[in-house]
Amino acid sequence: MEIEVQVHMKVALLHSRFSPAGRGIAPSPYSYAVPLPGRNYSMVTEFILVGFSNFPRHLLPAFFLLYLLMYLFTLLGNLLIMATVWSERSLHTPMYLFLCALSTSEILFTVAITPRMLVDMLSTHRTITWTACASQMFFSFTFGFTHSFLLMIMGYDRYVAICHPLRYNVLMSPRGCARLVSWSWAGGSIMGMMVTLIVFHLTFCGSNVIHHFACHVLSLLKLACGKETSSVTLGVILVCVSALMGCLFLIVLSYVFIVAAILRIPSAEGRHKTFSTCVSHLTVVIVHYGFASIIYLKPKGPHSMDSNTLMATTYIVFTPFLSPIIFSLRNKELKNAIKKSFQRKFSPLSS
Description:
Number of strands: 7
Structural class: mainly alpha
Strand order of the largest sheet: 4-3-6
Shape: globular
Order of helices and strands: HEEEHHEHHHEEHEHHHHH
Number of helices: 12
Strand content: under 5%
């Protein structure tokens, strides 16, 4: 009983540290731990997202405006790509079908995390319920892994188009493409459900302060208690890394065959024209995995929480922001289609 009272006192002390007088976070009457019968600790039913609370208050409006503009541009850019592909018959090809699916996953991924981050940035009440935290983790993992699977399929599409052009219509039939997209979404959902169930099967006790602006899996695992926590952490890392590195390996393997096929083309113009169809996809892959490796594979050192928060936003906000720009500017066919659609809409007004 004395141990349980001490745990409650520690939880209350943590809440007092994140009060308006401390770090600008108002305590919630519902965020305290619930005692577990027959155990010496209490179960957390609500979490506190530290997020940007450590930053100077006068900088938060500037960060809010910057991330809001990037978020809105991400939504509008991806919606523009989807609308252009839908309206232009010349773009009704497998490559642009996959691009539409990629834009959809990108929109849903940012919607799962960024709005909550923007609201918490200017709020003093940064608590999130156990259920909302689990939902956010599920959707972010689902759409994030779906994004990686779709990038892998787009690499396979480029491989078939360049290395087996005569079999392209057979291997990339409309039914086959729809099946590949469905498998990507199913695979992302399975990964999201698996990771979420593994993590939230654990018991969270004592501290309920997440040092992140979202329900980040590694930050949550640090709050879990029990003997199986270390093995679960290792298992989650192995599952996620294996899936992501497997996708990256297949993408790299596709481009090894693509480069070998391009080098066999006799004319320099033909090589340039063929490789130009892969530039936008290859650039997005480099950006996607580059920022992810900076965040998750950075060496352990004296990194401050503020620097870790800013680094996390590069993958959550900046990478989805760059994706529609890269596809719109580096893909000549898509860029011309966007110009044509704008001309059709605005030329009657000018005339």
